[in-house]
Design brief:
Elements: E1 7-14, H1 20-30, H2 36-48, H3 64-69, E2 76-81, E3 86-91, H4 99-106, E4 111-117, H5 124-135, E5 140-146, H6 155-172, E6 178-181, H7 205-211, E7 223-226, E8 229-233, E9 236-242, E10 247-249, E11 253-257, E12 261-270, E13 273-275, E14 277-279, E15 283-288, E16 299-302, E17 308-319, E18 325-326, E19 330-335, E20 338-346, E21 352-353, E22 358-371, E23 382-386, E24 393-399
Parallel strand pairs: 1-3, 1-4, 4-5, 5-6
Antiparallel strand pairs: 2-3, 7-16, 8-9, 9-15, 10-14, 11-12, 11-16, 12-13, 12-15, 17-22, 17-24, 18-21, 19-20, 19-23, 20-22, 23-24
Helix pairs in contact: 4-5, 5-6
Length: 401
């Protein structure tokens, strides 16, 4: 009998020199997730630097500029697996000027590792990374207190940092976190439990990653089916796209947004094969009982729990572009498969948003959007703002209804 191995998507974040690249390198090395030639290349580069032991940070700082400067610049995705689970790791930069990169990496993550140097404790970038994790509603957060070897593996130092972080987490509305004391350089509590901290009774980092619950079941949420493509076959129309949440069945009464028209599903195809039901996140095509004016960008839903249809969009945002965002700017809003024109009406207390700024905005759209609150659905509550002049991505938004 075969056993299904699930996948955990997680992101790492830490301030400069907190040892994040070393932690990721140690995780890959000790879990035997790197190739022999990769390790040999790291050992060679380390010897050239005059280091006796392999610098595991070089396993993750892949760009030449990153290696030369000793920092992480871009988001790097790493794929590895253990007998218990597959992992997709988004290794994100720690510098404040790359906050937008962390937003990119954490936007689809189910867990975030926030790294802290035990000698420095909670710093400004720690609070910023915690704010991003809270803003993006990352379901699980690990507080990895690193370099415990440099504070004598003292329990009181660990507890002091955890208490300090807990205060900030409560202010941010962060939904709990799991603290783990580690030493990435030595390997304490990364893959194997440490012999130096007998006062710690919890799991090693990898052990926690292998057993943390993976997400919520999207198929149990209300049905949301954004139409991506309309297929015409003679007198019949098929509406194709990805079922983002919930389930659909032949015979279901459905509503098309924003028109509000009601119809009934008469057929569901999955990879060209007829099915009676479909569950998120399957890519499907459906047929309706009658001809309706349905086009790309429309949202088809089933049941009474429908999204909010609005032209006034309030949202928490992270500004990604180098050009600032100001009140009065005309933008495009891309939500699922729908793109509409909009104007920035309010930026809260901010006069403008610059690159990497976090804030709250109000938009007025030219056409209504079928939105869910981001706290309820990360898929149908998220959107991006686009520059209509050149198509560049400006801002990542999380709807607040």
């Amino acid at each position: 009998m075969s056993t299904t191995i699930d996948t955990l998507r997680f992101a790492t974040a830490g301030s400069v020199d907190d040892g994040k690249s070393t932690l990721v390198g140690r995780l890959l090395h000790d879990s035997k997730s790197i190739l022999t030639d990769q390790l040999e290349a790291v050992e060679h580069a380390s010897r050239n630097r005059g280091q006796d032991a392999p610098d595991l940070a070089l396993l993750t700082d892949g760009l030449r500029a990153e290696r030369e400067q000793g920092i992480t610049i871009d988001v790097a995705y790493r794929y590895f697996a253990t007998p218990k689970r597959r992992f997709i790791l988004a290794d994100t930069p720690g510098h404040v000027q790359y906050t937008r990169n962390m937003v990119t990496g954490a936007s689809t993550a189910e867990l975030a590792i926030v790294l802290i140097d035990a000698r420095n404790g909670v710093v400004e970038q720690t609070r910023r990374h915690a704010a991003v994790a809270a803003l993006l509603r990352v379901p699980h957060v690990v507080l990895a207190v690193n370099k415990m070897d440099l504070v004598g593996y003292e329990e009181k130092e660990f507890e002091r940092i955890v208490e300090d972080f807990a205060g900030h987490a409560a202010e941010l509305g962060l939904r709990g976190f799991t603290p783990i004391p580690v030493s990435a350089l030595v390997g304490d509590n990364v893959v194997d439990r440490s012999a130096h901290m007998d006062w710690y009774r919890g799991p090693a980092l990898l052990e926690f990653l292998e057993h943390v619950p993976v997400g919520t079941d999207a198929a149990d949420a209300p049905a949301r089916f954004p139409v991506q493509y309309v297929i015409r076959g003679g007198e019949v129309r098929y509406y194709a796209g990805q079922l983002m949440s919930g389930s659909l069945r032949v015979g279901d009464r459905v509503t098309v947004h924003p028109s509000g028209e009601i119809s009934e599903i008469t057929g569901i195809d999955v990879l060209g094969v007829a099915h009676d039901t479909a569950r998120a996140p399957q890519s499907i095509s459906i047929r309706l009982a009658d001809q309706r004016d349905v086009s790309r960008g429309d949202m088809i839903t089933a049941g009474v729990d429908v999204p909010a249809l609005t032209k006034d969009v309030r949202a928490a945002v992270c500004h990604l572009a180098d050009r600032p965002l100001r009140v009065g700017d005309r933008v495009l809003v891309r939500h699922t498969t729908r793109t509409v024109q909009a104007i920035v009406k309010n930026l809260g207390r901010a006069g403008e948003l610059s690159a990497n700024d976090l804030g709250r905005i109000t938009l007025r759209t030219a056409e209504p959007l079928a939105l869910d609150d981001y706290a309820v659905s990360r898929r149908t509550g998220a959107f991006i703002l686009i520059d209509p002049a050149d198509g560049a991505t400006l801002t990542a938004g999380m709807a607040e209804l």
